[in-house]
Amino acid sequence: MNRHPFEPARLLSGLAALSVGAGYGLDALGLWQAPGLWLLLALPVGLALSGIAAAWTSARRHRTPPADPPPVTPS
Description:
Number of strands: 0
Strand content: under 5%
Low-confidence stretches: none
Shape: elongated
Radius of gyration: 19 Å
Distance between the termini: 16 Å
């Protein structure tokens, strides 16, 4: 199975969407009184952080040379 590179931008955007969804879900169940403005602003802020992380990761990957692949051993 091929391993995929870690992408922190996708992690941040997923956590932002999950937090907004959980906040609205808890508010709908009556377990938490969610402040509307905070939930409204949580997703754009999370996406902005995700964009910053994507730009930083992209710049970092293009600056560092790729590692040598491991030698292939016959099986």
